[in-house]
Amino acid sequence: MRRDEGDLDETQFRGSVSELTGLFELFQDDDVLGMFEMAEPADAALVNHDPINEQMGVVDQRLEAWFDPFGWTAPTGYLHGPRPSA
Q1: Looking at the DSSP assignment, which residues form a beta bridge with residue 74?
Q2: CB within 8 Å of 63: residues ≥ 6 apart
Q3: Residue 23 — φ and ψ, nearest 5°?
Q4: CA-CA distance, 61 to 72, in Å (whole number)?
Q5: Neighbouring-strand partners of residue 77
Q6: CB count, 10 Å around CB of 34?
Q7: What does the pLDDT profile of the chain (86 residues) look like in tens digits?
Q8: Is the separation of the CB atoms in 7 and 13 below 8 Å?
Q9: CA–CA dist 58, 50 (Å, integer)
Q10: By the 8 A CB rule, do 38 and 44 touch?
Q11: Residue 29 and residue 45: Cα distance in Å, rounded?
Q12: pTM of the model
């Protein structure tokens, strides 16, 4: 958006994208950036068939999978630990 508004030139924009990608890689969330490159829902389904993504633990990025609990959690949510006070 800052580039579109004229606040960043092309060199600054490319540098910013590179640094942001590095930050996502540092926290192992670079699979999120891949979602922005997807053009249609079928692209998310193809991610599951990549052996590198499987080894890296990239989750199912199809929209309907966003609402499935992770394999290590109960389907009802987190049941372990104290309940927060109101």
Answers
A1: 77
A2: 41, 44
A3: -65, -45
A4: 18
A5: 74
A6: 15
A7: 888 888 889 999 888 888 887 877 777 776 777 777 778 877 777 777 788 777 777 777 777 777 776 666 666 665 666 666 65
A8: no
A9: 10
A10: yes
A11: 18
A12: 0.39
